[in-house]
Amino acid sequence: MSDIRATFYEGHNSDGALKKRPMSPHLQVYKPIPSMILSILNRVTGAAMAFGSTLVVAWLFSAAQGPKPFKKMQGITRHFIGQTVIFGFSISFFLHFIRGIRHLIWDSTGKRLQKDEINQDSVIDIAAILTLTCGLWALIIGKRLRNKK
Predict the structure, then answer these.
(1) Residue 149 pLDDT greater than 80, yes or no
(2) What domains are there in the chain, each with its CATH number?
(3) pTM of the full predicted structure?
(4) d(C-alpha 70, C-alpha 140), whole Å
């Protein structure tokens, strides 16, 4: 008896002749393009958003507990690691936000679905994600600098 895995790579032509089918391409086969990278990141950041949302709930819970727990949570969020996590959460948020708008446009209009259009729009998505994230952090840092004076 042959190896069972070999049967998954054999198929039949329309005339019934046995033919070896190619294996599915893997990430190592494809040249990374913006739309592919954003699609993968959309899935990864979905998990990050779930984790980050838990942190937001913890922050709100600490605020509801009173000044002492809230001050402790503020110490955590103002630490470099806390700021890095919040920065990553903001990128994840804006990536999901922009990609959600893109899918809304696709679903409601049925336009911009050709490969070249998708790749062009992916570059626009990246610019929008970076602009919104940097804009948010410019506001946050600017407010902190004003409060220190």
Answers:
(1) no
(2) 29-148 (1.20.1300.10)
(3) 0.75
(4) 19
